[in-house]
Amino acid sequence: MIRNPVAPExxxxxxxxxxxxxxxxxxxxxxxxxxxPDIAGQATDRSVADAIASVAPxxxxxxLSFAVVGLFWLAHWxxxxxxxxxxxxxxxxxxxxxxxxxxxxxxxxxxxEHGDVPIAVVVYVLILSxxxxxxxxxxxxxxxxxxxxxxxxxxxxxLGALRGLAVPVVMLASLALLPIASTSLxxxxxxxxxxxxxxxxxxxxxxxxxxxxx
Amino acid sequence: MIRNPVAPExxxxxxxxxxxxxxxxxxxxxxxxxxxPDIAGQATDRSVADAIASVAPxxxxxxLSFAVVGLFWLAHWxxxxxxxxxxxxxxxxxxxxxxxxxxxxxxxxxxxEHGDVPIAVVVYVLILSxxxxxxxxxxxxxxxxxxxxxxxxxxxxxLGALRGLAVPVVMLASLALLPIASTSLxxxxxxxxxxxxxxxxxxxxxxxxxxxxx
Amino acid sequence: MIRNPVAPExxxxxxxxxxxxxxxxxxxxxxxxxxxPDIAGQATDRSVADAIASVAPxxxxxxLSFAVVGLFWLAHWxxxxxxxxxxxxxxxxxxxxxxxxxxxxxxxxxxxEHGDVPIAVVVYVLILSxxxxxxxxxxxxxxxxxxxxxxxxxxxxxLGALRGLAVPVVMLASLALLPIASTSLxxxxxxxxxxxxxxxxxxxxxxxxxxxxx
Amino acid sequence: MIRNPVAPExxxxxxxxxxxxxxxxxxxxxxxxxxxPDIAGQATDRSVADAIASVAPxxxxxxLSFAVVGLFWLAHWxxxxxxxxxxxxxxxxxxxxxxxxxxxxxxxxxxxEHGDVPIAVVVYVLILSxxxxxxxxxxxxxxxxxxxxxxxxxxxxxLGALRGLAVPVVMLASLALLPIASTSLxxxxxxxxxxxxxxxxxxxxxxxxxxxxx
Lengths: 214, 214, 214, 214
Fold this sequence. Notes:
By secondary structure, chain A is mostly helical. In chain A, 72% of the residues lie in helices and 0% in strands.
């Protein structure tokens, strides 16, 4: 599309560093909601301790979102070790992904304030799942357009696509628990993201080894 | 101007990464206004749902500004694939451009809160149009000073100049609708940015092919 | 100091990009105070226009600080085109410089809210002048330790040291006007930064040419 | 783990720049709490001076945290001059480290508001100490997995591990003073971080020279 790029490598690098900056800012802004409320009257050890205790749900929401966004960033990091070139549609898809990443502080604050209310959990799950799905979409696009390393095994390609789906799969499935379980049980069930990610990896390797060989 | 630069390439790279950081921060701060209002009394599924619904105009303003700033970044990304060297005046022009980019969260918040008030729409249009125009100004300067690749076709040079104008052209033209149409119709008309950008590209290609050949 | 650095170049690059990130964030946060106040009752074109007009002093403070921090960044950009290597004390001095840069949103907000009160002007001047002086200190250190290009002319070395002093010199001198002039006159006098910077450059070139030749 | 990375060097670089961005944002957000309180009635030189004086504890908290986070960043900078390659577990450990770094504005605000209340001091110490310890953990992991330069002397390896511990050691020890001394004395005792860091360096060098030679 661009006939005479000064440095084709430069375009990919810039996409990646721009993404890193958005991830870094979003992940750091998550902590902005972890704030002690104003204390009326003279502050004492007791009243400050109470104020700190009252931010516990926000610290939980912060830690949770930081872990999930950290996983998304790790997936992005891994994918762009393998993507050799970028084109404009990939840049656009990546901008949409970043649009969801930058929005994550919103559902995080919602969960920190109203984590016991089902609708807050639903909004949190939808936005984080959409982010995970967009990551997979960018990878599938890059694969279809031949932007990733041609020597890559099918195992790596599949893993790149499926790995990021652990978050959406576990989170969306957990919504089925919402009518019958407490919101804190639903949130606890998200810990399943880690074993599910390991399972996906094992299953993808199995797929790869089932036929004669790749 | 600088007689013994350690690494001339380094100056361009730094300009670009500094710009990326400002773009990334501005684009992420856009989401800071997407916040649920405080809920008086006990939060229920209903009151939280209402609170979430009440931020819908801010989510709209966020998505709109994210898309526009994303387009501006894409234009910047494209231009610096072709700009080979930078000089101090270009750095200064770029800083002015970034000054407008960093300001965009302000009209975005204004639109999110008062999107139904014409003056808010006017301020939004003026600031975003100025940003688009400054992008074109940096490109024209770089072209005049021979900072871009000399082998570049006239098509690429013209496209670099005109492409970023889709936002100002559509937005400024939409102001003509303001006295006769609702603000939401005016905002909807901004979707024309996408077809106008395609038209500009086709028209520039046509200009390029009209003479014997470039 | 570090006996086996994997990549000596990498240390300088990282110092520079870390600085760029801090500059970019500080410069973008400057705009966070440009916000319309809440409007009581139904928002109308008139009340929104009034609200926008009321942020004019903050837009002025934003533009002013953006220009000054932009100049500081430009000076930093220029210096590290010429600094070849970094050592730990230079990194520490640079961190102190960034500590002032990151603080600049504070005096900017102060000026935006109370720009007509002399003490606000004094605090603004002191913090921005300290930032400018720290920039010169890093350059002098780098020069003394032989971290900059040895082939550099005395003209370049002197210019690197003196150039960044235009902001402190003009701003500190303007404080002498404070007892006898309005704060807005004092603030207007800061426009002298631009001609003073040009004068410094001419004067440094003159110094360089006075002896037989460099 | 990744069989065909396009550029192995790229993975390390990205880890480092992502870290720089998080450090830069956290360090810049520290200053966000340095804000003048609203002034009731007409602002005068006196009332603005009082308002500025009232933010002194926050400026102290800002300067303190900026210095500590600056030291953490310097330690990170130093370590990645020596770490040659990264693997996924190191990236994950680094994300956990960044999770603490991004949280630091919270205890800083707490200390700025309630620095005279012991529990605020305890929370501050715990979060900053955990950050320092995580830095050492990443270094020990990298050393065990052979990710650092093999030619590195034992002195450098030990220094990389122990250097970052000056902050946790001094801060945790200072908690012993809390029942018997004022909080401001405890906070003043943190200045011991600087001589302790020098002592650690000397002690590590001594360890290195005690045996015949390394």
